[in-house]
Automatic annotation (TrEMBL):
SMART domains: HATPase_c (SM00387). It comes from Sphingobacterium alkalisoli. Pfam families: HATPase_c. Residues 196-400 form the Histidine kinase domain. This is histidine kinase. It comes from the Bacteria. One of its GO terms (molecular function) is phosphorelay sensor kinase activity. It catalyses: ATP + protein L-histidine = ADP + protein N-phospho-L-histidine. Its EC number is 2.7.13.3.
Length: 407
């Protein structure tokens, strides 16, 4: 199990659960409020309908009572329309005051426009929203009261979705900030550990160099091949220590021939690997790129070690160098015929802590990707098949410039 990935997934799940709980609670409570307010508005509309019926059917009652009924009717603040059985509009309330269903020639209010389409649209909308309230007149005729929800109720219906959207934005921002802080803390820890490792390696490496010189002098073995290889290994340790000391700082890049740099490292690496594994380097020998030799060797080292581990006992590793002249890019493909990588893990292999081996911290490819980014390049799994092998591709910017041919 990858603890880094597990903790990351756990935090994602907890944040999502938090959002779902808040969103669900908001929807439930808001739905309760909407139903209560909708019921209240329905009651208001029924009271308005009853007061309108009273005005129409009781014209001879006391003036004070009529005034009271008018006051009750006029207290309604809902947009409403009354129609007869033929859907002719008889009365309306709280609609656009600049429009009317009374023709200009039939009224003294010449400043009002006649817009039947507006009233038809409003009436159709009210029909879709609520069933009508029926007014039974003494004449046997029926009137129908249609009404819209109030602005407050419409806004309340939308509110939970706005709230959920804001919560989602907040969670995205919080998750991004949390990831950034966590990544910064991890970087500081790795930088501190790397620099401390480099410091601790310094003293024994210097001692080993001194002991080698003493052995050469004591046994008069200036050109001994074994001591020469031991010295190369100690020098390699110096390079490794120097690598660790430079982690966290911006590396300096200089122009180098890519083929020569990779070939030099393979020459060193080959003699320290099983002779049953064949190394082949092919392709363009002339391309150049801006490199930091120590870090770039580390990139190649990690990829070659992974390839060796994937192969096991016997196989072949091919390094192919090519150039995309149009994009001024260099492609470095490192292929092996090892056990391969599942397609679902093409991205996961670069995550810190991911490993398919029983031993190991799963940091090699994560560090490799970071070092490639220092070179302003990219690295990815170009292709892989279980049981057939894997090809990693590195893309670097070419330092060679080609002028277009003059016709």
């Amino acid at each position: 199990m990858n603890p880094y990935r597990y903790n990351k997934q756990l935090w994602k799940f907890l944040l999502l659960l938090f959002a779902v709980v808040i969103g669900g609670a908001s929807l439930v409570y808001t739905n309760y409020l909407v139903k209560s307010l909708s019921k209240s508005e329905r009651t208001k509309a029924e009271v308005w309908a009853m007061s309108t019926r009273s005005i129409v059917t009781m014209p001879d009652v006391d003036d004070q009572f009529i005034s009271f009924i008018y006051a009750v009717r006029d207290s309604l603040t809902l947009p409403a329309i009354i129609t007869d059985q033929k859907e002719n509009i008889i009365f309306w309330r709280d609609l656009d005051s600049t429009k009317t269903n009374i023709r200009i020639e039939d009224t003294v209010q010449a400043d009002l426009a006649y817009d039947p389409a507006y009233f038809e649209k409003q009436l159709n909308g009210m029909k879709r929203m609520h069933s009508p309230i029926v007014i039974d007149l003494d004449t046997g005729e029926k009137w129908y009261v249609y009404y819209h929800d109030s602005d407050a109720l419409r806004q309340l219906r939308v509110y939970p979705y706005v709230q959920i959207s804001l919560i989602a934005v907040f969670l995205i921002i919080a998750y991004t900030v949390f990831n950034s802080i966590k990544r910064s803390e991890q970087n500081l820890v790795w930088v501190g550990m790397a620099k401390e490792a480099a410091h601790q390696l310094g003293t024994p490496i210097s001692s080993l160099m001194g002991w080698l010189e003493l052995i050469r002098i004591k046994y008069k073995a200036e050109d001994d091949s074994v001591l020469n290889e031991m010295e190369r290994d100690v020098q390699r340790l110096e390079i490794v220590a120097d690598r660790f000391s430079k982690i966290g700082s911006t590396p300096s890049l200089t122009n180098h021939n890519v083929y020569r740099v990779i070939n030099d490292y393979i020459t060193y690496f080959r003699v320290r690997t099983s002779d049953k594994i064949t190394f082949v380097i092919e392709g363009d020998r002339h391309v150049e790129a801006m490199l930091n030799i120590q870090l770039f060797d580390w990139i190649i080292e990690n990829l070659l070690k992974n390839a060796v581990n994937a192969i096991g006992t016997e196989g072949k590793i091919i390094v192919t160098i090519s150039e995309n002249i149009a994009k001024e890019e260099i492609f470095i493909d490192i292929s092996d015929n090892g056990k391969g990588i599942a397609r679902t893990n093409f991205e996961n292999v670069f995550q810190p802590g991911f490993t398919t081996r029983k031993r190991g911290w799963g940091l090699g490819l994560s560090l490799t990707k970071r070092m490639v980014s220092y070179h302003k390049g990219q690295i990815f799994v170009k292709e892989s098949e279980i049981g057939r092998g894997t090809t990693f591709r590195i893309i670097l910017k070419s330092n060679l410039r080609y002028e277009p041919t003059q016709v």
